[in-house]
Write a structure and sequence with these properties.
mainly alpha, 67% helix
Length: 453
């Protein structure tokens, strides 16, 4: 198969896959999406009426029985809490505009929540997720692992947590985070080192967007510091740093303005969670049945092994590994390292693009021992993940807390094949009813869940 035929085939499959997008605003997605609807539809940042549209679990946290915001969820400015970042709204803006135009044309109510808006924004999330995969394919080619880049793309797309946040939970941040972080690494690893101020200014703009999308991405700015130190002359470094800072200011300004408007302070994020830097849950974050990264999504371990192989010959891969290690330590130190309701460890979806070259290198190494073995591994990982997502999405295994992998394995060969046809049929013919039933099951699970570190 030629490269062009592969691209055409992948594009066609992706377009067909958009039928699986569920335009349902759920959980954290309500907070992210409210940064679009409140300023653009209402002309304010009073989120009380936005939260009336939320799923039951989210709504009860912010809205009382009278439909009014609860007192403990008001900020010092009198507005309703919204700790979630404004960056996703920036990325969703073009799709939202398309939805708004469709609504004004009579295809829906122009309130920000009718089907034209939700479908346009949800589909755009899937597109951003797919672009993160394509960025990864390009990185793999530039790292010298192009032969297995396509297979690696399939492995990361279908055997990671990404599809959950592209298709089932498109109003969450993670597919957007994968795009923003992928763009950050692509620009920093492909276009640099360069002393041209314009190159650094654009990287600053990308970096600001990346952090505005997801605050934890600030840890990746260590890559910027490293790249600055690589410049041969101190004068070039000063100019590059100044240009980078200038590019960083616009998205940083939007973020700071959002915090000031809501909290009356640019230093308040709104998050009440803690970090325990001296007691990180390193082993649990990697291997716990409660969303342990490698246990839930073993394709990540494969990709990291490949990055280690690449690091022997390419210093850029070493930089990716350093960035990954810093993020891993930060997440392991986080109060909610498990992500509570999460498929796998959702915080690491951000690194989707840089996992593709690692997976390509690992598959290439395996292919030297037998090409069919490499493809068989991709198929097994993808099928296992698809069945696991099926179980998780139907609440056959807990969304929160640890899962019993013996039950998961048994369900893969008994429950999943038996229910697959009926579930898929209902998903396409009665998506609203299907979603409501899943939501009701989730409310029951949440009632019994006890948060722990």
């Amino acid at each position: 198969m030629t490269r062009r035929a592969g691209i055409v085939g992948m594009t066609l499959l992706f377009v067909l896959s958009l039928a699986f997008v569920n335009p349902y605003v759920r959980g954290d997605g309500n907070g992210y999406y409210a940064w679009l609807t409140s300023p653009l539809i209402d002309g304010d940042v009073h989120f009380g009426n936005q939260y009336l549209h939320a799923d039951p679990s989210f709504r009860t946290r912010f809205i009382d029985d009278r439909g009014q915001p609860t007192s403990d969820m008001r900020t010092v400015t009198g507005k309703v809490e919204n700790q979630w970042s404004v960056g996703p709204a920036i990325l969703w803006l073009p799709a939202f505009a398309i939805g708004h135009a469709a609504a004004l044309a009579g295809l829906g109510t122009p309130d920000g929540y009718s089907p034209p808006y939700l479908w346009a924004v949800a589909v755009s999330t899937a597109v951003y997720g797919m672009v993160s995969i394509l960025i990864g394919v390009d990185l793999a080619r530039r790292f010298g692992s192009g032969r297995w880049a396509g297979a690696a793309a399939v492995a990361i797309l279908f055997a990671s947590s990404l599809p959950v946040y592209m298709y089932l939970l498109p109003f969450h941040v993670h597919a957007l985070a994968a795009f923003a972080t992928g763009l950050f690494f692509w620009w920093g690893l492909v276009r640099l080192p360069s002393a041209r101020p314009a190159v650094w200014a654009l990287w600053g703009l990308i970096s600001g967007l990346m952090v505005a999308v997801y605050f934890i991405h600030a840890v990746f700015l260590i890559v910027v510091a490293w790249r600055l130190l690589e410049l041969p002359r101190w004068r070039a470094g000063v100019l590059a740093a100044a240009a980078f800072t200038a590019g960083l200011l616009p998205p940083a300004g939007i973020h700071l303005a959002s915090r000031f408007a809501l909290y009356g302070s640019v230093t308040t994020t709104g998050y009440r969670d803690e970090f325990f830097w001296l007691s990180p849950r390193l082993v649990a974050t990697a291997l716990s049945p409660e969303h342990g990264l490698f246990l839930w999504t073993p394709v990540v371990a494969l990709a990291l092994a490949g990055l280690v192989l690449l690091a022997r010959r390419d210093p850029r891969a070493r930089l990716i590994l350093v960035a990954w290690a810093v993020l891993f330590y930060a997440i392991a130190s986080y109060q909610n390292w498990h992500g509570q309701s999460s498929f796998g460890n959702r915080f690491f979806v951000s690194l989707t693009a840089v996992l593709v070259p690692g997976a390509a290198a690992a598959l290439g190494w395996i292919a030297h021992r037998g090409r069919p073995l490499a493809w068989a591994l991709v198929v097994v990982l993808a099928l296992w993940n698809a069945g696991f997502v099926f179980q998780w999405g139907l609440n056959l295994v807990p969304n929160r807390g640890p899962v019993d992998f013996a039950v998961v394995a048994r369900n893969q060969v008994t429950v999943v094949p038996a229910r697959l046809t009926a579930v898929v049929r209902r998903y396409f013919l009665d998506r609203g009813g299907f979603t409501r039933d899943v939501e009701a099951d989730d409310v029951e699970e949440r009632r019994d869940y006890r948060l722990r570190r």
